[in-house]
Amino acid sequence: MPPQGAIRGARKWTRPHFPCQGLDQNRWLGRPSGWASRWGPLAGGATAIDNHPPDRPDEFHFGLDGLGRLRDLVAACARACGLAEARAEDLVLAVHELATNSVRHGGGRGTCRLWRDGTALVCEVRDRGWITDPQAGRQRPTADQPGGRGLWLVNQLCDAMELQSSPDGTVVRVRMSDGG
């Protein structure tokens, strides 16, 4: 358990810890015992997704069999960041949708990275898929459209969504703050 005040407002971590209280990070992330997470202190006023994550953001590699563990990890981190229950649930749903897309369309697996950005939690999902539609997730799908609702849903649920895609793969970052 982190020291009192380590999650909110701490300027320096006093010892290695995992900010997602109640979750064994090393077991979920496959890291050796004693690995310290690199979550920076909270600083108010951030409004955009930080394009420069910390040197070692929390990372989870997943496939179809890891989707449940990924949901648990995102939920625990959202709670540790102080997100309200409804906002944490929205973030879990959004990241689950991105991860499911990775499994279905991005080569069967992906990587989720998590870090703090001010008072928010940023989740980045990357895979080997390629999204060619520059408006993916930006326009509401029509009722007769056979797919395309997932990215739109993610965009509706989160404070911000950024998508970059090329033949080398796709990266989607979402941000959820405590205040909406």
Notes on the structure:
Residues about 1-50 have low confidence and may be disordered. This protein has one domain: Heat Shock Protein 90 (2-Layer Sandwich), CATH 3.30.565. It contains four helices and five strands; from the N terminus they run H-E-H-H-E-E-H-E-E. Strand 4 (about 160-165) and strand 5 form a beta hairpin. With about 180 residues, it is α+β, with helices and mostly antiparallel strands. It is globular, with a radius of gyration of 16 Å.
Please describe the topology of this protein:
Layout: H1 25-29, E1 58-63, H2 67-80, H3 85-105, E2 109-117, E3 120-127, H4 149-157, E4 160-166, E5 169-177
Helix pairs in contact: 2-3, 3-4
Q: What is the C-alpha radius of gyration, as a whole number of Å?
A: 16 Å
Which shape, going by the Cα principal axes? globular
Q: How many helices does DSSP assign?
A: 4
Average pLDDT figure:
76
CATH class: Alpha Beta
CATH-derived topology: Heat Shock Protein 90
Helix content: 25-40%
CATH homologous superfamily? Histidine kinase-like ATPase, C-terminal domain
Strand order of the largest sheet: 1-2-3-5-4
Distance between the termini: 27 Å
List low-confidence stretches. Answer: 1-48
CATH architecture: 2-Layer Sandwich
Q: Structural class, from secondary structure content?
A: alpha+beta
Topology order in helix (H) and strand (E) letters: HEHHEEHEE
Main sheet makeup: 5 strands, antiparallel
Number of strands: 5
Number of structural domains: 1
How would you describe the oligomerization state of the chains in this entry? Answer: single chain
- Give the amount of beta strand, in percent: 15-25%
